[in-house]
Amino acid sequence: MDYDRILLELGECGPWQRKNTVLLGIPFFVAGLTLVIPSFAAMEPRNGFRCKIPECDGVNFKFSDFAPAELFPSLDPNNSVKYRPDNPNYCEHYRHYLKDGMCHFDHKAEPIACHGDEYAYAEFQMEESIATLNNLVCDSYPWIPIIDSCTTIGILFGAFLTGPFSDMYGRRITLLLALVCCASGNLLGCLSSDKIFYAFSRVIAAFGGEGSLIAAFTLTIELCGVKESLPGLPLVKYSTFLGSFLFIFLSLGEAGAVIFAMMFRHWRKFQLVVSILMILPAGLWFVLPESPRWLIAHGRFKEAQEEVKKAAVKNKAILSPNVFNLESNQEETKSPDYVMKDLFRSSQLKITLTMFICWPVILLLYFGLTLSADKIKITENIFLSFILVCLIELPAFLLTPVLADTLGRKPIFALFQIVPGLFCLIAVFLKPGTALYAFLILFSKLGAAGAVYLCFMFTAELFPTTIRNTALGSCSAIGRLGGVLAPWVGKYLPNQGFYPQYVTLCVFGGFAVLSGICALQLPETAGQPLPRNFEDVERMEKETKHLWTICRSSRDKQESERLLS
After folding, report:
1. What's the predicted TM-score (pTM) here?
2. What residues have CB less than 8 Å from 416, skipping those under 6 apart?
3. Residue 400 phi, psi dihedral angles, 5° rounding
4. What is the pLDDT of residue 550?
5. Which H or E element spans position 105?
6. What are 103-123's pLDDT values in tens digits?
7. Mean pLDDT for the stretch of residues 4-21
8. Alpha helices, DSSP H, located in 112-263
């Protein structure tokens, strides 16, 4: 049974496929919400804090009880050594002394570090966060990037484990279990104020969010074909566009989390409202089909026929009596059952290793620019900065399928890493907050978003059906190593003074350029049917033309036309 042949009669992108694509965008929206939640629920106090000085402060002491320039060396313009208003050190203050019952500070004595566990905070964007509730400042500040890293660790395990599970038991059941896990993890985080418990809940929530995203993406591209084009855009295939369309929901989910944070400034209310909304998508179980491709690949032909017949009713398609006939032994036999070690077979090794390089670098850039939106200072308004960083992805997801189908996956995949990398390197020499600086950073995020989408699409097209989700999950899991490093490279290390903020952009940009060069080793998949076995992948490699070969062929063709004329 050949699903691509069935699609010739069923229709590659009829009402059935379009409706299911919109429904499958909901798990992407949930994944976007989950990604941004800790940025606000665990937001650090951005406008200042100070520790309690027992001899000077009462029970209800406030940050504003003393002038910052009077208390902190890093905000004292007369202190030429320690003055750094752009990145003040609130964990170090001048020594105090009492005179006439009043507290004064000695600006000539050696400053002292904060001790104790009582702090007062200046007003900032959230009324309360996990960071202020647990005093995650000074010596406890590493817990902020740890919580961010727990999110990416959960994504890593979600990608690594749900891929093989989906290949074994189906896309639909995997999607349901992942959505339940995501909602449960986010709700769990509301139950306790303890930092360790909250970090653990982020692992569970992110595990489910990533699992639902991968299952939804794979199901979407497997429902469609690769031949039908968009009206007016003959080179752009429906399958490419619909895969990209899903990522629009991811961006909207990220921006939606920011809007909810603006509405609910207390971390627990904010996370509780968002978590309750995440329960609703579990109802997708009752309306989504199983992937006919997956059913056919596992020899479940009768169930595949039932799904196709239901789809024919929705698409108003009339199927011929022999559409399900098996015309040859090769078509009648189910696809080979591959295991994870097959990702490293000699014919596939170059593809797998290249993807293992590109995925972490792209996600380092993507998550780094997302999670450190407040540190990079695109604008002074943190909510606006986050919304811009999220919504800049939308044109990428609309433009990428057009470019990828017109010019090919490989060159666009490489360019969407090299160009953002170069822009990050150029931004190193500009002042943060300027219009040109903001443009370069936002364009880098746009390119990174397009590269993330192509990571999913390219990987899905480079591996056979029975191991597709395993490959997608494995590559995504390796990629999350870049996501784990992102909050440390983008937030913690520059905040602690290990290196200036511009070094962050050097790391993002340098690795992105090198990864883009590596991407040129991949075969081209544009216009090719989804491979059913590794022989199909090897055929794609043989048919791939290198860029210099294409240029030479184009010159030869022009020369031939000139001679004939």
Report:
1. 0.79
2. 400, 447, 448, 450, 451, 454, 516
3. -60, -45
4. 42
5. strand 102-106
6. 889 998 888 998 878 999 999
7. 88
8. 130-133, 143-169, 171-189, 195-223, 238-263
